[in-house]
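Residues pack. Consider this:
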Amino acid sequence: MPALHRAALSILLGTMLCAPALAAGEPAIAAKASTALPGVSLLGDPVAMPGLERKRQLRLYLPPGYASSGKRYPVLYMHDGQNLFDVASAFSGEWRVDETLDALAREGRLELIVVGIDNGGDKRLTELNAWDHEQFGKGEGRAYTDFIVNTVKPMIDRQYRTLPGRAHTAIMGSSMGGLASHYALVQYPEVFGKAGVFSPAYWTAQPVFGFVSGKPVPKDARLYLLMGGKEGAQMNADVQRMAQVIRQTGHPAGNTVLKSVPGAEHNEAFWSGELREALLWMFAAGESR
């Protein structure tokens, strides 16, 4: 494997929830105190994933006024649920999704329901990739996305006051989750009207460029691409290439953002800091219909 890809692989593996092994006699690491706000909860028992013979924990964020409002809300589906709301469950820092959205709700700017789908640890590299990879294994991304669309979303729409239409349904993630979010938008344009594609690991799935080129999404779909300047030459080049592919499909420039942040690295601190701006653009009033 080229040195560049070895470095990128170490980044991808670093986002997996694999606890470090302790040497004999080494003291246990103290558990971190929870930082999740009151609107965050575990959504019942882990949910079976059809076709994958495993289960997955879901995490739920409800906006502060949910219990008393009677309103219906847009829904954002996010990957790597362990890393979204709580430093106690996060691998390397959290996205602070709950803090960001509570603040936006107080300001009267945006209220969302967020559903976090936990990653599968050692299954992460295959579950979030719709294509086979010679090193990582057979891609399970189609079954994983089908799980979100056919199992998770109907359950959320039944149990909570959602706005279930595509104009009010988004998907977001980083790294492999960025790749999975872009795939979901293209594969299921009738379900998702918006995608937040942060630091996408396109290098793990080169067929994605032909896939996006061959399946233009509806012109009102909103696509937010984000990269950090220090995430590596290959990853940055791939995002620029994807932006060109999207332009060539005829997608309106007003419904696509490509933001590159000089000096930013591949980590939750970067993604957390960019979340507010991305969500306000993705869910801007009157944009997606």
